[in-house]
Amino acid sequence: MTAPASEQDAPIVYVVDDDEEFRSAVSGLISTIGVEVRAYARPSELLVNFDSGRPGCAVVDMRLPEMSGIELLSHIAHMPAIVLSGHGDVPSAVRALRAGAVDFLEKPIRPQDLIEKIQALLRDVEGKSLRCGRATNMHLYLESLSLRQRQILPMVVAGQSAKEIGRDLNLSHRTVEKHRKALMEKLGVSSISELIRTVSQAAAMNPDIFKFD
After folding, report:
1. How far apart are CA 13 and CA 207, in angstroms?
2. Distinct helix (H) and strand (E) counts, the chain
3. Furthest-apart CA atoms within the chain: distance in Å
4. Is 22 exposed, middle or buried (0-12, 13-18, 19+ CB in 10 A)?
5. What is the pTM of this model?
6. Residue 90: which of 104, 108, 111 has the closest Cα?
């Protein structure tokens, strides 16, 4: 039940640096990994063109016109960011990290270091997006479950073992395991821990998630 990828699911990497040569070089580097890049010289340009509906991350220089890179982070607080500085020092790094930056790199940067950090951020963003999407639309997944699977699911989420569930429902533990495996496949999770985490997130958003018509 995985939805097909769309343009709205594709991540964007925003680059904000007033050094045109550096900005162009970084943009070209990032584009080599097949990710859309939007590069700006000024924070206001980013804020005007910022697409809050798309996942992604930002690469922001510490010193910018109009406002500092750290101030800019407060306007895109939900998006992970890497802060760059040509005047790297410990206090600057600390300020950037306290302001919400995921990482701090000193110029000149090693291209491979930047690419690896961006890829790691995008993997994390994608994982969070998928988990949030599953949690938000969990009621659609639950509709695909059989009556027995709907009975078993909250018991699994509560931490009960197959034997405990079988005893409560008067089923063999092998039958419970069979139903548990089937409902995990329908919900698109690969482990009990992922099942518990995903459904718990959905239940926090919708306390009536286990109430069926």
Report:
1. 35
2. 10, 5
3. 70
4. middle
5. 0.59
6. 104
Q: How far is CA 79 from the centre of its chain?
A: 9
Buried b (16+ CB within 10 A) or exposed e, 106-135: eeebeeeebbebbeebbeebeeeebbeebb
CB 63 within 8 A of CB 87: yes
CA distance 3 to 123: 18
Q: What mean pLDDT value characterizes the chain?
A: 84
pLDDT classification of 128: cutoffs 50, 70, 90:
low
For β-strands 56-61 and 12-16, DSSP reports them as parallel
Rounded CA gap, 3 and 130, in Å?
10
Taken in order 17, 32, 104, 108, the sign of the CA dihedral is: negative
How many angstroms from the chain centroid is the CA of residue 105?
Answer: 22
At residue 91, φ and ψ (nearest 5 deg) are -60, -40
